[in-house]
Specification:
Layout: E1 11-15, H1 18-21, H2 29-35, H3 55-64, E2 69-73, H4 76-79, H5 88-103, E3 107-113, H6 119-123, H7 131-147, E4 153-158, H8 160-170, H9 181-208, E5 215-227, H10 232-255, E6 257-258, E7 261-262, E8 272-284, E9 293-296, H11 312-326, E10 330-334, H12 345-361, E11 366-372, E12 391-393, E13 400-402, H13 404-415
Parallel strand pairs: 1-2, 1-11, 2-3, 3-4, 4-5, 5-8, 8-10, 10-11
Antiparallel strand pairs: 6-7, 8-9, 12-13
Helix pairs in contact: 7-9, 8-9, 8-10, 9-10, 11-12, 12-13
The structure holds beta-D-fucopyranose (FCB).
């Protein structure tokens, strides 16, 4: 039976990414991308939320939400500003942040790579070059050796599928390549291999210090792909999309597989991290290589400010579908909506949490939910226009203010109960 109660140990969190909130770093691929004038509205990630200077203030925001989990990322270029140097002060900054979080009763979930690369790494053909793997592992080792005693939950790589699709296929993320399927596949192979080796490395280093509760996974962007009026070409597109966009990564990172070949022997997820936002209806278009479809939505569906369909059932469908494939605990590592007027977010949170409760009622171990995002921030190509925050953010004054939907989420986090929408 579906109840309104979440398990006692359920993690209610929020998620952010370093580049999107910290501001101030000039040594990364997204700084270079903004400098090159690639953000259509001219916004620049150098400002963001000044989180680097406001860690304490932002942890207070989390306390205000009664969070017991926080997913965030380490900005690799800060830790390794050049190929041959490490910045001790920067890693200690993160160490201090984690200590503050834990003092506030908030468990950190640490992401090692969330879209942004050090500029030097980008310049040497990031992820497409085979050496990327050993470079990522050296960075991973440095971070784990400095922070591992404080961190149990690790995300190696955020959304490798989106990173590669946007950077090498659609061309709107650095390095801005279009239709380069060869690089997409090469990058995928390297990211998969880097994940599997990082999984093994993190466990080894944590074992060495006797830390036994380490959980390593990745955050995969999973979408629902539905067919258009049951057309045959649409069914083929559906298979291509599920494979190229998600299962290539899911099977690769879970089993160390690459097109049926074994890259690494073993199992490389302790939990499955799902980032869920929306679905696509695949309308046949023979010219649209390689998926032979246009991505569309149902005519009368509800959408967010970015015109993404709001489809909570999709979350339950994906949880069930992927749980069948891996039987692992699941964390919803991201879920949220752009809603500058805050008109639909409350219902969005309600409906997606209800979807999670329905899966838990079927015995699926969904362990945590990390709402995207704590505070309006630099939303990649949309700059500051897309507002996903539980807290609104004023770029001029740096003022943060809790939205009504944030108040609602706070009550849920506090009571560990799904509250009715009129509460
Ligand atoms: C995800 C990204 C995250 C944020 C949300 C809206 O794909 O991981 O950084 O941009 O979308």
């Amino acid at each position: 039976m579906v109840t309104n109660n979440f398990p006692k140990d359920f993690i209610f969190g929020a998620a952010t990414a370093s580049l999107q909130i910290e501001g101030g770093d000039r040594n990364n691929s997204w700084y270079d991308w903004c400098e090159a004038g690639k953000i259509p509205n001219g916004d620049h990630c150098i400002e963001a939320n000044q989180h680097w200077e406001r860690v304490e203030e932002d942890i207070n925001l989390m306390k205000g939400l009664h969070l017991n989990g926080y997913r965030f990322s380490i900005e690799w270029p800060r830790i390794q500003p050049t190929k041959d140097s490490w910045d001790k002060a920067a890693i200690l900054h993160y160490r201090d942040e984690i200590i503050q979080l834990k003092q506030a009763g908030i468990e950190p979930m640490l992401t090692l790579h969330h879209f942004s690369n050090p500029s030097w790494f980008e310049q040497q053909n990031a992820w497409i070059d085979k050496e990327s793997i050993s470079l990522f592992l050296a960075y991973t080792e440095y971070v784990v050796k400095h922070l591992g005693d404080l961190v149990s939950h690790w995300v190696t790589i955020n959304e490798p599928n989106v990173y590669l699709m946007m950077g090498y296929f659609v061309g709107i993320f650095p390095p801005g390549k279009e239709g380069d399927i060869k690089s997409y596949l090469k990058g995928a192979k390297h990211m998969i291999s880097a994940h599997c080796q990082a999984y093994t490395l993190i466990h080894k280093l944590q074992n060495d210090i006797g830390k036994k509760d380490t959980q390593v996974g990745a955050a995969l962007h999973l979408r629902v792909f539905d067919t258009y009026k049951d057309k045959w070409l649409s069914k083929i597109s559906q298979k291509i999309c599920y494979f190229l966009f998600q299962d290539l990564f899911f099977n690769g990172m879970l089993h160390g597989k690459w097109f049926g070949r074994t890259l690494h022997r073993g199992q490389f997820f302790d939990y499955l991290g799902i980032n869920y936002y929306s679905r696509d209806i695949l309308k046949p278009n023979i010219k649209a290589f390689p998926i032979f479809a246009d991505l569309t939505k149902p005519a009368d569906c509800k959408v967010n400010d970015l015109d993404w369909e709001i489809y909570p059932e999709g979350l339950a469908r994906l949880i069930k579908m992927y749980y069948q494939k891996c039987k692992l605990p699941i964390h919803i590592t991201e879920n949220g909506m752009a809603d500058s007027q805050d008109k639909q977010r409350k219902k969005y949170i309600h409906d997606h949490l209800r979807a999670i409760l329905s899966c838990i009622a079927e015995g699926i171990p969904v362990k945590g939910y990390f709402h995207w995002t704590l505070i309006d921030n630099f939303e990649w190509m949309e700059g500051y226009e897309a507002r996903f925050g539980l807290y609104a953010h004023d770029l001029e004054t740096q003022k943060r203010s809790l939205r009504e939907s944030g108040k609602y989420y706070a009550e849920i986090c506090k009571s560990k109960r799904l509250l009715p929408l009129d509460s």
